[in-house]
């Protein structure tokens, strides 16, 4: 946000440099303003001549423009230029002005005030012609900032405007605050329209150039094996759904890999989005993707990501036999065997139920709850009246906050050690290599393993089969060990 120069500049070298440049330009341009334009007045270059005449105009109350500039095409320097009062000349006749609902007002009065600056043989510029008289009233100092050649944002001001927009402040509030800093609008040096135009031009350039976030690509390469994708959040003024690709980092915290505003939710659009996302991520395909139950999305995934394990929602039954028995009992009790909706759900059982995903890596993710959590958080960053560029600028703010949280987690991990529940070597080692959150999960699993007992073993040949159960429980599970030391459990 805007800041006090006296207190902030020492910590901002780029801003300090901008101030030095602005001050240098100002000093060079006004060093001879104690003299009014006169024949023979000398300048080092053509820009200094313009700055001098413009500053003179600011002091007495008119605006300046260049009527012509002559350039030596062979050597590329300005040989002469005519600087005139902005009200010089007259507007040519335009038949369209009679058709316009609100024709432009006349500004020219054929004013003759001007200077001509010419480059001499010694490579200095001199005033060779001068006319000081104006044929129109000059404006007072309270209005001079409204004239065209005096409405300029300097480097410091544009830097403050950029900071304010990045922080999510509205342009009106920023303009009012900067006016107070300057001691009033007359001292600011530009108008609210200039402020608005600067932001619009900046956004247009951003739209034209686009943005590529290399950090997202790096994050996806490391943590992009399991993703959650959700298309329900609608916050922009056209109520288009914002689709976000999110996952977990190694601290088990949310990480955002990308987002897009959709114009529609048909299969072809989703397919384009998935294919574009994969291209942006160097072609790496995730192992597992969690989504909501969206038919068009499912179709698109089958085309764009045919090798991905597509999962929707998860239920508690982890054994296939238990699930089938419970499903059949439900259909029997409510007479639903012929119900088309339940038949469709059962056809999708491999995507929907936990029992069918045991061999699928999910990184601890069970549903699209991660995406739903992001949707809730985004309400603190996004406004319904944001344009497209503003929308994604503040979407980026949410991403940066997530990254800062990750930095805090890294710092915390370097300064604090989790408490051991048992002093055994494997936990000492795990605490060294895991992040605190992941160590906590590992330690919990290790402690649970201590109440598992072996009830028998078949080891005549590979695979070796162990029967195990929890202490105090009768239900047994089978642990299978292959010749290649691959271990799995029912």
Secondary-structure blueprint:
Elements: H1 5-8, H2 13-30, E1 42-43, H3 46-60, E2 64-72, E3 77-85, E4 114-119, E5 125-131, H4 155-166, H5 171-182, H6 192-209, H7 214-223, E6 226-234, E7 241-248, E8 254-261, H8 267-280, E9 288-290, H9 295-304, E10 309-311, H10 320-334, H11 340-347, H12 349-352, H13 369-378, H14 388-415, H15 425-433, H16 436-449, E11 452-458, E12 464-470, E13 477-481, E14 487-489
Parallel strand pairs: 6-9, 9-10
Antiparallel strand pairs: 1-5, 2-3, 3-4, 4-5, 6-7, 7-8, 11-12, 12-13, 13-14
Helix pairs in contact: 2-3, 4-5, 8-9, 15-16
Name the features.
490 residues; 41% helix; alpha+beta; single chain; 5-stranded antiparallel β-sheet; 14 strands; 5-stranded mixed β-sheet
Description:
The protein has 490 residues and is an alpha+beta fold. 41% of the residues lie in helices and 18% in strands. It contains 16 helices and 14 strands. The strands form 3 sheets. It has a 5-stranded antiparallel sheet, covered by helices on one side. A 5-stranded mixed sheet has the order 8-7-6-9-10. Strand 7 and strand 8 form a beta hairpin. Helix 2 crosses helix 3. The longest helix is centred in the C-terminal third of the chain and has 28 residues. The protein is elongated and about 110 Å long. 18% of the residues are buried.
């Amino acid at each position: 946000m805007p800041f006090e120069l006296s207190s902030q500049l020492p910590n901002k070298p780029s801003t300090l440099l901008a101030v030095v440049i602005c001050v240098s330009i100002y000093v060079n341009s006004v060093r001879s303003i104690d003299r009014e334009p006169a024949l023979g007045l000398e300048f080092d270059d053509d820009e200094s001549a313009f700055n001098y005449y413009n500053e003179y105009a600011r002091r007495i109350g008119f605006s300046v423009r260049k009527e012509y500039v002559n350039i030596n095409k062979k050597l590329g320097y300005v040989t002469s230029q005519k600087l005139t009062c902005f009200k010089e000349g007259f507007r040519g006749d335009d038949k369209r002005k009679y058709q316009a609902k609100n024709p432009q007002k006349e500004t020219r009065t054929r004013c003759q005030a001007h200077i001509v600056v010419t480059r001499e043989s010694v490579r200095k510029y001199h005033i060779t012609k001068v006319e000081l008289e104006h044929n129109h009233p000059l404006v007072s100092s309270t209005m001079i900032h409204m004239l065209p050649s005096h409405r300029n944002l300097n480097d410091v001001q544009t830097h403050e405007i950029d900071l304010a927009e990045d922080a999510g402040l509205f342009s009106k509030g920023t303009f009012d605050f900067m006016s107070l800093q300057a001691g009033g609008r007359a001292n600011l040096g530009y108008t609210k329209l200039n402020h608005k135009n600067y932001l619009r031009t900046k956004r247009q350039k951003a739209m034209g150039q686009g943005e590529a976030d290399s950090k997202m690509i790096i994050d996806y390469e490391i943590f992009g094996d399991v993703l959650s994708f959700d298309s329900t959040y609608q916050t922009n003024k056209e109520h288009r759904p914002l689709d976000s690709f999110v996952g977990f980092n190694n601290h088990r915290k949310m990480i955002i890999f990308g987002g897009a505003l959709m114009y529609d939710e048909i299969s072809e659009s989703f397919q384009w989005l998935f294919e574009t996302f994969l291209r942006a991520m160097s072609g790496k395909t995730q192992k597992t993707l969690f989504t909501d139950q969206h038919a068009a999305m499912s179709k698109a995934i089958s085309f764009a990501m045919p090798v991905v394990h597509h999962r929707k929602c998860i239920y508690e039954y982890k054994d296939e036999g238990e699930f089938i028995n419970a499903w059949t009992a439900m259909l029997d009790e409510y007479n639903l065997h012929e119900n088309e909706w339940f038949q469709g759900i059962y056809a999708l059982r491999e995507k929907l139920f936990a029992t069918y995903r045991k061999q699928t890596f999910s990184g601890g993710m069970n549903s699209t709850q991660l995406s739903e959590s992001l949707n809730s958080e985004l309400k603190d960053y996004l406004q319904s009246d944001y344009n497209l560029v503003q929308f994604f600028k503040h979407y980026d703010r949410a991403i940066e906050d997530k990254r800062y949280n990750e930095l805090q987690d890294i710092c915390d991990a370097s300064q604090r050690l989790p408490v051991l529940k048992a002093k055994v070597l494997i936990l000492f080692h795990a605490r060294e290599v895991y992040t605190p959150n992941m160590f906590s999960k590992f330690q919990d699993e290790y402690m649970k393993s201590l109440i598992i007992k072996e009830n028998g073993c078949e080891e005549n040949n590979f695979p070796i089969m162990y029967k195990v159960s929890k202490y105090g429980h009768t239900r047994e599970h089978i642990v299978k060990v292959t010749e290649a030391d691959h271990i799995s459990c029912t």
